# Entry
Amino acid sequence: MFDQTSRYATTETTTHVNADGNEIVHLRRRFIPDPANRPVIATLTVMEGERIDLIAARQLGESLVYWRICDDNRAMFPPDLTSTPGRQISIRMPGAG
# Structure
């Protein structure tokens, strides 16, 4: 259903049956893995005008995996990570957590 690089690639689905018998397939809740369980491979200082997708492309080789950096830093809203120049963000070893 999702690209293998998607944060939802390994998220299970479940089915809800409405009162009228219609089935609705949906994703189960995705829990963010504890970043403390994975080693830090880089610490970056955010520069003025940086974007999280461009950081992901530079650091991880793919802009679409920006969500890994969000998970690593417990950011629910990706722009929060780059909105303050000088902020330190961590890049952690990929893994289940």
